[in-house]
Write a structure and sequence with these properties.
The protein is mainly α and 364 residues long. The chain is built from six helices and five strands, in the order βββααααββαα. It has helices spanning 41-56, 72-115, 125-172, 176-185, 198-211, 235-249, and strands at 9-13, 19-24, 31-35, 192-193, 196-197.
Amino acid sequence: MNAGGQGAALGFQFYGGPVITLLASKTSQRYRIQSDDFASMWLITKDLIDRLTSHFGPNSGLQCSHHGSMPLQEFFETMDAHFEYRIHAVKYKELLEQKALQFRAIQRRLLTRFKDKTPSPLGYLDTLLEGTYRQLLAIAEHAEDNKKTLYRASTNVSSAVNLLNYLIRLTYDLSDEDFAILQSILNPDVSDNGDQGWEEMVDTTITHQLRTTLAKSVKDQNVNIDMLGISGDTMKLKKHIAIFIERIAKGVPLSASGGHVTGKKVKASDKVMDRRNIAEPDRENSVLGASDTPIGTKFGEKTSPRGGLSGYKSHNGSALSPLDGSSDMDMSAQLPPLAGGKLKPLRGNKMEVPDLDELTNGSV
């Protein structure tokens, strides 16, 4: 605020985090909340509405609303960062399993050499054992750092989901019952339990809703749900979220017993997204009819000043790999080298212990 008295702007900063600015209009009863971080605006938005409601009283007729399109692009960026750290966690787990198998195999061969009545050269097995052990420690350290970063990403997704649900309620004037259902579909409680993470559970819930309550007609209703499992990317989930919000914008109630949503009509400028940037849906995997097209921007298109997923970095400052699976995690540049030489090149994608017959005195 201004030092001399009341001002039209108010700034907040989270401890060691982003800055959020709250602007009040001098001519109309409007407020604008802006920040470089989408998820951080949730707490300020909720507190502002709570304070306005408490100040004017419950019977004052105060009605809060939101005008404009849904910030799906920023929401998808937050979701992609969380999903990327989940993929990294799976890859670190696989690397740990492979290195642990290699470590135990080397131990068994060393024990066989030690128990042999006729002493024979170790053939650099001791060096290989030491190098594998140090690589195990390095991978475990990277996995622990990724776990901490994943926890922060999960918190960001939870705040982003809360903010998106609140904006949907304010934009389309959802009832308390419909908002409770919306909270159960776009669940802000983010959990990362193996292959059944937040993305898979939300995608399944939205798909079920689109095939039942939000289905266009009775013949489009289908309750068959695929098995839950981690997917290669989030493109399908993004399409379903855009279609889901579009159905709400058209006034389709979320509750099976409810009538038409008592929301205000959506202006052409306040649509979910611009139809000129619609991404063509997958007709085979789509839960809708052949005539339906989701309203939304091209998913993955950089429309915000921060750009897409390229703006996200890992805990140690390195850039994240893309979601399309075009590049695998290369641990060779991050793990410590062997003390006495190099490991034998891997066959395929598996970690294998080199055959003793192929070991020479000059290399391992």
